[in-house]
Amino acid sequence: MSDQIGPRGQDTDYLARREAQERTAAEQSADPSARHAHQMLAEQYARRLCAPPARAG
What we know:
2 helices
């Protein structure tokens, strides 16, 4: 799975919102596979929040 999710650059509001949405979806999912997928997406968004901003160019 690629880490290339969300917008280019460092839109922290978007990334934080998407992380929270994926964590909520994981908590509400009854299917273990879906829950895992949502958890993985949430972790990717969290990593993007902690990563340095992408350099233009």
